[in-house]
Write a structure and sequence with these properties.
Elements lengths: L5 H10 L5 H14 L6 E5 L5 H8 L3 E6 L2 H11 L10 E4 L11 E6 L10 H14 E13 H7 L4 E7 L2 E12 L4 E12 L2 E15 L1 H10 L2 E8 L12 E8 L1
Parallel strand pairs: 1-2, 1-4, 2-3, 4-5, 5-9
Antiparallel strand pairs: 5-11, 6-7, 7-8, 8-9, 10-11
Helix pairs in contact: 2-3
């Protein structure tokens, strides 16, 4: 099915209501400060319903949010209407990470929430990275998180079920994962049932192909795309990744 269609998009904020967008923006801002990059313009690729973009706007930073899902962008625009008066309004673009066009140069580009993992092939990863580089000024930073290959193969994903209380009932989500170790892919199938009391309101299903990455692989792919990898750390946290570090946070400089 289409990734993040309208049914899934409408459940997105409820399912990830505990995601700490402020802390993640703090992490990116700290990396920019550490590398001497002034954040005047930020490019938020795979912006979803706008959690990071809206936080950058609240900080007075010009931001462009890009997502391939029109449903996600529609929700982001709706939420942007609640920004305080005088806050710079983000610009929103419906587009693929590999091919989108945004005007001007950016100081920082991000792909948070494992967006790079949606590029399943080497060709797709390189196309996305080169498109990011094309939008960054020389010396600008690219910050992203992704699944860490050694941990994926060591820990292995488990099937999970979660129940979320919403404004109009409950959403029950199951997630099951099949690993394709040859292609470095995890095929994650989400199934969502929405109920209100004893009434069944609807069902949605999405299968996401998520690529996981290894350190030397990342360094090479970034180098081939015009970046110099600066750091790989655990995410969240700030330690050296190990075989149980499922997510990593990476920072690369545009050469």
């Amino acid at each position: 099915m289409t990734v993040f269609d309208s049914s899934y998009a409408n459940q997105y904020d409820a399912m990830y209501g505990d995601k700490d967008y402020v802390a993640e923006c703090n992490l990116v801002a700290a990396a920019a400060e550490r590398h001497g990059v002034v954040m005047s313009r930020v490019l938020d690729i795979g912006c979803g319903t706008g959690g990071h973009s809206l936080e950058w706007a609240r900080r007075g930073i010009d931001c462009v949010g890009v997502d391939m899902s029109p449903s996600m962008i529609a929700l982001a625009k709706e939420k942007a209407g609640g920004l305080p008066e005088g806050t710079p309004q983000p610009e929103w673009i419906v587009g693929d990470a590999q091919t989108f066009e945004a005007a001007g140069e950016f100081d920082v580009a991000t792909m948070m929430f494992a967006v790079l993992g949606y590029m399943n092939s080497n060709e797709a990863v390189l196309a996305a990275l080169r498109n990011v580089r094309r939008h960054l000024r020389t010396g600008g930073l690219f910050a992203f998180d992704c699944w860490y290959g050694p941990a994926v193969l060591s820990v292995r994903p488990e099937d999970r079920v979660r129940v979320v209380e919403g404004a109009t009932g409950q959403t029950i989500r199951s997630a099951s994962t099949a690993i394709d170790s040859f292609r470095h892919l995890a095929h994650v199938t989400f199934k969502l049932w929405t109920v209100e009391g004893d009434r069944y309101l609807g069902y949605a299903e999405e299968t996401h192909g998520m690529r996981y990455f290894f350190p030397q692989e990342l360094q090479l792919l970034l180098q081939m795309s015009g970046f110099d990898l600066q750091s790989i750390r655990t995410f969240p946290g700030d330690g050296e990744p190990g075989d149980e570090s499922w997510n990593i946070f990476c920072v690369a400089r545009a050469e």
